[in-house]
Amino acid sequence: MSPGRTQVAIVGAGPAGLLLSHLLHLARIESVVLESRSRDEVQRTVRAGVLEQGTVDMLRDTGVGARLDREALFHRGVYLRFGGRTHHIDMEGLTGGKRVTLYAQQEVVKDLIAARLEAGGEIRFGVSDVVIHDVLSDRPGVSFRQGADAQRIECDFVAGCDGSHGMSRHSLPEGALARHERMYPFGWFGILVEAPPSSDELIYARHDRGFALVSTRSRMLQRMYFQCDPAQKTEAWSDDRIWAELRSRLETPDGWTPVEGPITQKVVVGMRSLVFEPMQHGNLFLAGDAAHVVPPTGAKGLNLAAADVRVLSRALQRFYQSRSRDALEGYSATCLTRVWNAQRFSYWMTMLLHRADSDTSFDRNRQLAELEYLVHSRAAMTSLAENYVGLPFED
Ligand code: FAD
Ligand code: PHB
After folding, report:
1. Which DSSP category does 393 fall into?
2. Distance CA 281, CA 275 (A)
3. Angle at CA 358, nearest 5°, toward 357 and 361?
4. Over the Cα atoms of the chain, what is R_g?
5. C-beta separation of 50 from 162 below 8 A
6. Backbone CA torsion sign across 16, 19, 22, 24
């Protein structure tokens, strides 16, 4: 293949773009990944932590699971805390052995970058002015700048994997995509803490002051979140104020408190549910956050990105083997079934655990009744468990 030509041009080296490039390589399909940030920046972005069983299996089955197997934390389930009581949801028992895996997104990204580069794959970091051309023709292209050089790559297909703020979906004509959106009147304040774990498994807490989540990254690094105003500035929150808030929202009658330590990162993230439909236009295919965004409560975003590129890589493989476009034409519909279920689940988890200023005493009591029902019904816990650890893939 001459320089300037590839089979699939991929915009974005997040989990979606990198995993797609890796899966295509295993299917002997060439790709070039274009990423606006530096490798170092991409590898330092702290985001997801929870991987579905199917995502873990996919990473293992495709040869990028070795470090995950050594370093990830595997949990049987999660705790739900409300009204001062803590209830264990035994996800492994309820789903016939599927576990909750804690392995940071930036570690997945590091493993995928290493695998691609080791296999001779091409990832162009630090590109700018990416423009996608001619997706309705069978000769699409992507132009971009790298340093002072203006370049263009011709390809058969373009994969828009450039996240929720990317440009690829904006290259479609006005009206080509329907936008389905819901905003939430709250965000998450996230911290990274240098301390041992506060709990052996994640704690999702509902409190009258708002939601809180105790998560983990490793034996010495913890991740915690609490619901906040999405317009909140991190500077407004001293370490002492953060710990006081977390202690109140996580309180139990026996005096449980989170293990404190130096806070090394503070971030406020907004929450929204968003789907663009269809996830394709001509020879452009959108995957991951470029096509849909979920609130993080259900821990689904990265996992959905992985499911999308699994479908896309198989459809592209089918095309190159048989010249049949059938699977490619069905890409959006196949993905959207899973996407809408993840939207439903993420919305439900969010509304189950967060408080809105507009909530009435009716809303509060209905929410508590829903939680009570959930932790006392095996059917309801099974529904939570099978969605959280991840529903099986279509095929
Ligand atoms: P991204 O990770 O956003 O990657 C897109 C890439 O494209 C970026 O590297 C970007 O620099 C690049 N790019 C953008 N524009 C351009 C351009 N014009 N040209 C070239 N490159 C470009 N998901 C889970 O599954 N489990 C969790 O536990 C979880 N927790 C989360 C917690 C938080 C606080 C947040 C914010 C998210 C969480 N998520 C979780 C969601 C998850 O992080 C995202 O869904 C995931 O990053 C999506 O991957 P992606 O590759 O589609 O997009
Ligand atoms: C995380 O550890 O970052 C995390 C865990 C659970 C979620 C979201 C994020 O639901």
Report:
1. P
2. 15
3. 100
4. 22
5. no
6. negative
Angle at 108 (CA atoms; ends 308, 45), nearest 5 degrees? 100
Q: What is the DSSP string of 169-183?
A: GGGSPTTSSEEEEEE
Nearest residue (CA) to ligand 2, atom 4: 49
Task: Name the amino acid, one letter, at 229.
Answer: D
Per-residue pLDDT tens digits for 134-146: 999 999 999 999 9
Tell me how many degrees the CA angle 360-361-366 measures, rounded to the nearest 5.
100
Predicted pLDDT of residue 395: 72
Question: Could you say which residues of the chain have pLDDT below 70?
Answer: 1-3
Sign of CA pseudo-dihedral 290, 291, 295, 298: negative
From the CB of 187, is ligand 1 less than 6 Å away?
Answer: no
Which residues have a Cβ under 8 Å from the Cβ of 70 and sit 6 or more positions away? none
Locus of tokens 């409190």 = 207
Q: Say if pTM beats, i.e. exceeds, 0.90.
A: yes
85 CA to centre of ligand 2 in angstroms: 21
Question: Which atom of ligand 1 has the smallest separation from the CA of 305?
Answer: 52
What distances in angstroms separate CA 197 from CA 27, 215, 246, 278, 344, one per listed residue?
40, 8, 15, 42, 30
Q: How far is the CA of 97 from the centre of ligand 2 (A)?
A: 21
User: What are the structure tokens assigned to 378, written together?
Assistant: 């095996």
- What are the tens digits of pLDDT across the range 213-236? 999 999 999 999 999 999 999 999
Strand partners, 144: 151
Classify residue 37 by its DSSP letter. S
Ligand 1, atom 52: closest residue by C-alpha: 288
- What pLDDT, on the 0 to 100 scale, is given for residue 3? 54
Calpha distance 109→263 (Å, rounded) = 24
Instruction: List the beta bridge partners of residue 221.
Output: 194
Token pair in block for residue 312: 């896309």
The answer to whether 296 is a known catalytic residue is yes
> What is the C-alpha separation between 295 and 361, in angstroms, rounded?
25
